[in-house]
Amino acid sequence: MLLIFSVTLLKAQSSFVRLVTSKGNITIMLYDETPKHRDMFLSCIKQGLYKDAAFNRVIKQFVSQGGDLDDTLLNREARHPELGVRRLPAEITAELFHKKGTLGAGRDDNPEKASYFTQIYLVTGKKQTDAQLDALEIKKDRKIPAKQREIYKSIGGIPHLDQDYTIFGEIVAGMEVADAINQVATDKNDCPLSPVIFNPVKLSKKECRSLRKVFYKRPG
């Protein structure tokens, strides 16, 4: 199953990543509109920081979180204050939102909304109703664009996270694998009872060109 609601973006996007997971493969398009997060993720992959990483926090109909846990990151910083606190400045734009299948960067509760370097999440979420979206607009004091409303109503997502976390990519193939991961059995702390391992691989320029040809139909 493919998420094709942002197919018109594909011509411009330059980087794709494949998550090779124990449940199957997921192909993700990274947004050029969030270049710092795109480059951060690609750099972490190159350094091997996500080698044999795990989806270690899975909340059904919400997100599947992978990489380092909050406690791991914060405890490491507490043990080594001389290294300082490393965060990536937020790249939050109104055009990128938490529809089902998007890739986001985790963070702690810092006021700048800056991201961790080694924690990601895949959005599952739920389908929204007009009443739910109307209530959210009042609570957040912001208008949800009409096109985003339609997507939230048709495929779902997590609209209340919009403008609070950086979204920097989306699934273009393998959504059924992401759904399977989000449905695994977990303990009371949302940790999968059986490990769900993933290894991200940056796709070659040739593979990226092929994907753009498949998902983007040029005029004429």
* Rounded Rg: 17 Å
What is the number of independent domains?
A: 1
Gross morphology is globular
- CA distance, first residue to last residue: 26 Å
How is the largest sheet built, in terms of strand order? 1-2-7-5-6-4-3-8
Helical segment tally?
6
Classified by CATH, the class is Mainly Beta
Report on this structure.
The protein is of the alpha+beta class and 220 residues long. It contains six helices and eight strands, in the order ββαββαββααβαβα. The protein has a single domain, classed as Cyclophilin. Helix content is 28%, strand content 22%. An eight-stranded antiparallel beta barrel has the order 1-2-7-5-6-4-3-8.
In short:
With 220 residues, the protein is an alpha+beta fold. It is built from six helices and eight strands, in the order ββαββαββααβαβα. The protein has a single domain (7-215), classed as Cyclophilin.
Task: Please outline the helices and strands.
Elements: E1 15-21, E2 24-30, H1 35-47, E3 53-59, E4 63-67, H2 70-79, E5 102-105, E6 119-123, H3 130-140, H4 146-154, E7 167-173, H5 175-182, E8 197-202, H6 205-215
Antiparallel strand pairs: 1-2, 1-8, 2-7, 3-4, 3-8, 4-6, 5-6, 5-7
Please supply descriptive tags for the structure shown above.
eight-stranded antiparallel beta barrel, alpha+beta, 220 residues, Cyclophilin
